Each structure stands twice: as C-alpha cells, then as structure tokens.
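Continuing from the previous page...

OK, I double-checked the sequence for Protein BatD against my notes and this is the correct one:
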Amino acid sequence: MSIRRFITFIIIAIASMSLSAQVKFEAKVSKSKLGVNERLRIDFEMNKDGDNFIPPNFEGFDVVGGPSTSVSNSWFNGKRSYKKTYTYFLSPQKRGTFTIKQAKIEIEGEIYKTFPVTITVTAAVDKPNSPPDASDIAAEKIHLVAEVSKTNPYLNEAITVVYKLYVSPETGVSNWREKDNPRYNDFWSQNIEIKGLNIQNGKYKGEDYRYVVLRKTVLYPQKSGKLSIEPLVLDITVEVPTNRTDIFGRALMTKVPQTVTAGSRTINVKPLPEQGKPADFKGAVGDFTLSVTTSKTELNATESLQAKVEVSGKGNLKLFELPKLTTPSSLEVYEPEHEESVRTNLNGMQGSISDTYTIVPQYKGKYPVPSVSFSYFDLNSERYKRLSSDEIVIDVLEGPTASLNSTIEETSPSVKQSVRTSGNTFAFIKTSTTFEGMSTIAFFKSNLFWSLLLLPFMCIPIAIFLRRRKEKLDNDIIGNRIRKADRLARKYLSKAKKDLGNKEAFYIALEKALHNYLKAKLNIETSDFNKEKIRSLLLDKNVEELPIADFISILENCELARYTPFTQVTMQNDYDKAAKTISLIDKQLR
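Thanks. Re-ran it with the corrected sequence; updated structure tokens here:
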C-alpha cells in the first residue's frame, strides 16, 4: 500500500468516526394538524444517552399520557446503533395554532435542544384517534348526540338543537366539561336554561341507554343555503368495569379520560318564495296578529294620547321592524317607545312587540288615522298574509281652528273654485292720508343719552366676571378634558346621527366613525384593525376594561347589522352608547 492510499484510508476512517459520533436530538410528532377532539403523540429522540432531560411546558395542551421512556440497542455490520425516546400524549385545550417549544438534555457535558414544533388545532373531526390510555369500552359505551328539529327550514324559521349525552348502563361518568362550544355562524341563537341534569332512560341505536340533556339552543337562520352547525366537544371522565373484582365479586371500575363530540350538522335553509311577496314585507316569519289601539279618541288641543301598534304571536319577533303609524300633519307625533315581551322555548319566540306613539293635536277638528298594514310569511300555509287595522278618528273638541288652507291641504285634494268679484274692486287703494309732525325733543341730556354714557361703566364688572370665569375654566383641566371628549364624540358621530332610521347607512357610518376615532387616537391603519389589537392598545393607554368592552360590543353590532334587522330604538341606543363610550375612552387615554 502506497503512502498516499494509506493517508486517504486514515482520513476516511476519521471522517466516518466523526459522523458516527455526531449527536442527534430531535422532536417528532404524530401529526402537525389535528382536531380539538384528537390526541397528539410527540417523541423526543436521541442517538446517545443523556441526563437531565427537561421537556417543554406544552402550552395549549394537556398531558394525558407519559412520559414513557424506551431504549433500543442494535448492531449492524459491526456498527452499534443506539436510540432513546421520551414519549408524551397530548390533548389540545382549544382551537388555534400552538408552538411546542424546545426540549433540553445534557449529553457528554453539552446541552442540546430540539427545534420548536408548530401544531394547528382545528374543529372536532368525526373520527378522532383513540386516546392511548382509553379502553375500547369507553369509546363504545358513551355518545354525544345533537338532535336537530328540522334540517331544511325556511329563512327565519325557528329550529332547535338539543344535545344529549348517552351512557350505557354498565358504565358511568364522574366528571365532564365543555372543551369546545359550537359557533352558530349565520344564525340568531339563544340558549334555553336547563335547571338540573335529570337522568332519563332511552334508546340509542336500538339499545338501552341512560341519557341527560346538556344543552338546548333555539336557532333562526339568517341566510339561505347550506349552513354548518359546529360540534360540541366534551372532555369526560368515564368509569368502565375492569376484569378485576372486589371481595364481594363486583367488578372494579377504572376511570378513563375520553373526548366525545356531537359531530357537525348541515342545515339546508330554503329562501322565502318571491312569488306573492308584498312590497312592504319586513322579514316577519311565523303566525301573528296585529292591533292598533289608542288610549282615547276624544280630547282637547294640546292634550296628549297614546297610539299603540302591536304585533303578537309566534315567530321571529325580535328580527323584524313594526309598520309605521302615519297621521295628519296637525297631529304632532313623537318618536315611539319600543317594548318587547318575548319568551323563547323549544318552539321558538312567543309573545309580543309594540311601538307606542305619543300624539298631541294642535287644532280643533276630526282627524283620521289611516289603517296600518302588516305582512308576514305564514309557515303553515307557506304563503304571505296581510293584516290591516281599522281606521281611527281622533276628535279634538276644544282648541284653535286651523286655517282654511291647512284644512284643505289635510282633508281634501286641490279643488278649483270660481273667483267672485265685489262691487268695490279697488277698495285696497289708499286715496287719502294724514300727516303728523316729527318730535323736536333734543337728544342731549335725554334718557337715551345718559343710558349710552353710563353703559361702558356698567359693562366693566361684567367683563371682569367673564374674564375670571374664563380663567377658572382654563384651569379646570379635568372639566376641559370632559368637554373636549364630548365634542370629539359628536364630531365623529355626526354622519351616523344624520342616518338614524336608515339601518345600513347608519351602521356603515357608525363603524367608520369608530375606525376614524381609533385611527386618529392610536395611529393604527384600518388593515391592522382587529378586536384583540384594540383591546391591547387601549389597555396599554390605561383605559378601563368596561369602556373597552362597550366599544368592542358596538363594533360587533355593526357587523351583526348586515344580516339582522335592527329597530329605530336599537339604533338610537347604539348611537348613544357609542357617543358615551368614545367620550369615556378619550377622557382616560394617556
């Protein structure tokens, strides 16, 4: 062997020894994307034995199994292979994207770390992987079911979702908690309170089971098409029998953690028919009655009466607008007071909603209040129906008499009348006059002269008072801040106030006002506008939690208004709340 070949052989041997001596320490996961009801396995592998292993804190996950340790040694072609593994089983706490941070270990006096691992947790999947420490009995003998009353409703027709937990007689449940709540996107929803969990007997796939009703929810779809109801996910501790028995021969029970889901449901929402749809249809769906009543029909001018427009029955009472009351111009009408008396159960909304108008007549006479008309879609006949009230006549007994022109304008259309000429056609022309002489009283030393002379001296104390008041106001820092905040609120909300009564224009203007206010105050662009950042920035500016929560709730109302009916009263309340909230935030900003 030549010297060159010998040196080459030595170099190759040293390189192979160096490669074989390279330390590897890495984290491996069973999957990088999983449902919230699935389990994740993570292995921390090393090719050399080490000490002082420090796992990450697994933020966003619960450790349901592990750590378990495994070691393998093997020889292949005279080479030794070594692997040591620490294994954990994790259960995600909620949906989102999480990072499992670095693990550490000491190998031959050196500290080695794994790379961080990113995991995406989605909504529950229909067939999750079984938890490593859960028995097959637990998976087969406990079920969460979402019972939907109707899967093909009309738009704005009530449906119910009842969540039931079925447990077989030979197993039990010792603890449970909601892990992921369903989100009812594109639905108006309301949960029905359940008082106590009553255990009942029933059937599940033909077998005897016990069950409890965990949740009842009423939904009103707000758009047509296929809508998805996300699943409810529970973490449950299940008690299952083992093969061991006690001294009396009874099977011993073991507790097994289990994640169950009701599965997602799809609702196919039918649009309301276009054929026969009235022009004044406001979205009412159900079975309703209409009444228009007044507190009195006879009164004197400048006295007041109340006129009440009320719709009652069963249907989406909170999701449409009431018809407006129209009156002659001689009756002064104030903004109505909106009232709701609605209860919600498994059959949907029932009760009544009303607008009460205060009316004040200005002149003597009889004034007809025209009939009020209301249309709705009847689910029983699947047709549109119209309700109309009777005409009401308001008799004003005492008061000033309206002018002829105003009476004609209010009670009858324009009528041409013949013009009658009198014998004295030019009676309006003045043909004679009388002249009076001008006063010759001198201005000097008159009352007006002395008044104008003393007026500047009388204004001096007033000027001193006003100056001191101005200095006091300038030194009132808190008061100035309050007044400035109020002016700022009115400035940003002026456009929204002009659009009160027009739902879409009002909420667009209100949302722009909130955007522009924060853009001016916090120096953030519209592209960076999200609720989490708003909350964080305002908290950093020492703004209290309550006005922040009110501000965000108004933003949510602006988003919700795109597909949900809002009344005039609701818009006025949102406007007042926005003005108050902007004022409070501006006073607290540092």
